[in-house]
Amino acid sequence: MASVEEKIESLRSELERHNRLYYVEATPEISDLEYDKLMKELEQLEAEHPEFDRPDSPTHKVGGEPIEGFKTVEHRVPMLSIENSYDEESLKDFDTRTRKLLPEDTPMEYTVEYKIDGVALALIYENGQLARALTRGDGRNGDDVTHNARTIGGVPLKLSGKNIPNILEVRGEAIITNTDFGRLVAAQEAAGEQAYANPRNTTAGALKLLDPKLCAARKVRFLAHGIGYFEQAPFDNHIDYLDALREYGLPTTPNVKAFKGLDATMTYVHKMMEEMASLDFEVDGLVIKVNQFDIRETLGNTTKSPRWVIAYKWERYEASSVIEDITIQVGKTGALTPVAHIKPVEIAGTTVSRASLHNRDEVERLGVQIGDWAVVEKAGKIIPHVLRVEEHQRDGTQKPFVFPEKCPECDTVAVQDEGGVYIRCPNPNCPAQVRETLRFFASRAAMDVDGLGEKLIEQLREAGLLNSLADIYRLKDRRDEILELERMGTRSVEKLIEGVEATKSRPLWRLLTGLNIRHVGASNARVLAENFGTVDEIAKASEDDLSATDEIGPIIAKSVATYFNADTTKPLVEELRGFGLNFGEPVSATAESSESSDEKPLSGKTVVVTGTLTKFKRDEIKELIRELGGKASGSVSKKTDYVLAGEKAGSKLDKANDLGIEVLSEEQFSDMFCS
Fold it and tell me: Which residues are catalytic?
């Protein structure tokens, strides 16, 4: 039997291997849940046997104690700026200028890589151990953010492999991927909180947090692309350096290649520009570097930037337009959100006519007025928001926007969150809140009521047939009145009633999501359902019991307890119980039923979805895979059983074919598992 120390070392090795597979090789073998179980097991063993603890253990990446402030540290090698170019002629000038500084016929190579729109970060390793992490600062001095860098995905606390330099300063970008940013924003909006503005600002804010646990929660990652100070390095060019970093366990900027001559370099530049939209992180250009380190040393630096590198930049995700109006949108949690209505403009391939202004503080910070010209960007290539106002283009016709003191829907005096920025309507019967709650409850994200779309909800509300969630389940008794509505025939009414009845068997987490409890989205609802089993157990749980649950902190716990103790909640819960909705099963019974999941068609199978689907939305197909007993994974590996490929499937399909994994169309998937 293995000793405790051997078990701890085995777990550390396994976790480090999975970190490498996830961040460096992009071929994960286990789910996040399985990874978390391994981490928890290691944490428990280290807590029970502190004599075997080590500072480079994977458990120390989850965040230590908060620090009191930041120290400023001088960079051994200044982090200089990069010269920018905005057209191909400037790149030709760079090539000509560079060659003039070198002997004729110097065998020079150029590398091409993405100019990642992140936050510059220098990681300093001494004898293979992470010793310090510095921000760029003013280029000469940076802030010491080691406490936060230790939590960053892809930053190993100890380098692996051979021929590791005694001292190695790795430079790169701290980023939040668009996927993770979208999840962060969705969770904030579902919880009625202020949404982050864009990935870069969110990353920068995360690095400047004093509490590393808060930084860890923002899912920051790292991509290496440069080198600072080093001693006894076993590489003499940029490509070999990046290869070495991957051997050491560090993720690097992807798709970097070297070429002889500018013509071949430019061919690859055009290819990278075409493929940029498929990236999961923000890019604002490309970087062209001399590959060989000895030639770089010969070329040297100017006072501002190295002579051996140039950035080729362009603007792809911003556009200017006129703000024609600003209105207030009242959400399902009562938040009053200002929305800019702009003259339609195309950004990143789609037409944008609305952009969020987030809250009153943001309106004041921007100084935005109706009639202003403004720069609008798509944060994370997804979410349009106003970046800045072009004040120099004002002509006197602009009108200031005055944030309302009362809810525009019900005229109730609005109140600001204690210690927060959101201003809300406190009236739970506010027509806008009721309307948005009904829409959300019926949506695919919650109870998925087939046949109950936004337009029909409006019709039913205007007819006085739908004023609460419980009214949805009374519709079957009001068939005749529904038939009198426009475009509602007998078949449409029956379809609606069937759709409503079908929701009574929906899993508990969907009901919890649809109840519109502040700070509780689908992921938290799943956690509550899995840990407490029934609505009644959740309702009677104390704040302490709730907050002691993994992933349910004190804020969510307080919100859940407040919701179920509210006078308006108890009657609603009893009404829904009376209609026969699924209120869950005791945890023990749930566990027993999960043991029989091996009877499901996809039990034990891993499915990767790629490309554009026509029959399903991405969330729908992933939920269906789970309901069929399978695991929906985001990346293809040897452990993948099926790849469900839609139109324009890319690298994941190529990898599946290379690995010999069975590829299914939507029709084949439906025939095999849904019939």
Answer: 115
Residue 380: pLDDT over 60 = no
Note whether residue 297 is domain-resident.
yes
Over 195-242, what HEC string results? CCCCHHHHHHHHHCCCCHHHHHHCCCEEEEEEEEEEECCCCCEHHHHH
Strand-strand pairing, 318-330 and 309-313: unpaired
The tally of CA atoms less than 13 A away on the side-chain side of residue 72 is: 5
Round to whole Å and give the CA distance between 551 and 337. 28
What type of residue is 426? P
CATH for 649:
3.40.50.10190
User: Domain range spanning residue 469?
Assistant: 431-505
Contact by Cβ (8 Å): 608, 643: yes
Q: Tell me how far the alpha carbon of residue 512 is from its chain's centroid.
A: 23
pTM attached to this predicted model: 0.55
CA distance 41 to 24: 24
Same-domain pairing of 351 and 497: no
DSSP H or E stretch at residue 482: helix 479-483
Residue 16 pLDDT exceeds 70: yes
Q: Return d(Cα 422, Cα 163) in angstroms, integer.
A: 53
Residues 99 and 230 occupy one common structural domain: yes
How far is residue 23's CA from residue 251's CA, in Å, rounded to a whole number? 6
**Comparing C-alpha atoms, which of 385, 381, 330, 368 is closest to residue 197?**
385
Q: Give the CA diameter of the chain.
A: 91
Q: Are residues 588 and 609 in the same domain?
A: no
Mean of pLDDT values over 491-495: 92
Give the position of tokens 């969020």: 356
d(Cα 277, Cα 288) in Å, to the nearest integer? 19
Confidence at residue 590, expressed as pLDDT on a 0 to 100 scale: 46
Residue with tokens 């992807």: 254
CA distances (Å), 634 to each of 66, 187, 621, 626, in order?
A: 33, 19, 13, 14
Six-digit token string for 59: 């458990």
